[in-house]
Amino acid sequence: MTGSKKSMLHRLAVGTSAAVGVWVAVDSGMELTGYGVPLPLAVACALPMFAVITSIGGGVSDALATKTYRCAAAGCDFKVQLRHPEAGESRRWQELAAAHPIHDHAQRI
To answer: Cβ(54)–Cβ(14) under 8 Å?
Structure first.
């Protein structure tokens, strides 16, 4: 996938989650006002719903676009995370994760 296509998919995912967030916030706010809840309180309850849904959409989009490379050594928690890596860059970071300098430091101690 090209960079512009990846960013287009990211914008689409974030935009869709924002639209769903607006829909849920407006729907729940209108339902609350139907029960006699004052408008400022209904807005205060609806805005966090919008924020959470939009945040979840952005997080899912980022998670799907992120590639993680971990060290294969037992007990080592070294990892590298890249968002939308190119093929050459991806290979370089994969090699770095396999041969990072923390292992040399741990052996000297």
So the answer is: yes
Which structure tokens are listed for 88?
Answer: 């050459």
Report in angstroms the alpha-carbon separations of 52 from 16, 77, 91: 13, 30, 35
Structure tokens at 82: 């890249």
Chain CA centroid to CA 54, Å: 11
Q: Where are the alpha helices (DSSP H) in the chain?
A: 3-34, 39-65, 87-98, 102-108
CA dist., res. 31 & res. 43, Å (int): 11
Task: Flag whether the pTM goes above 0.70.
Answer: no
Q: What would you measure as the largest C-alpha separation in the chain, in angstroms?
A: 69
Cβ atoms of residues 55 and 18 within 8 Å = no
* Tens of pLDDT, residues 17-47: 999 999 999 999 999 999 999 999 999 999 9
pLDDT of residue 5: 66
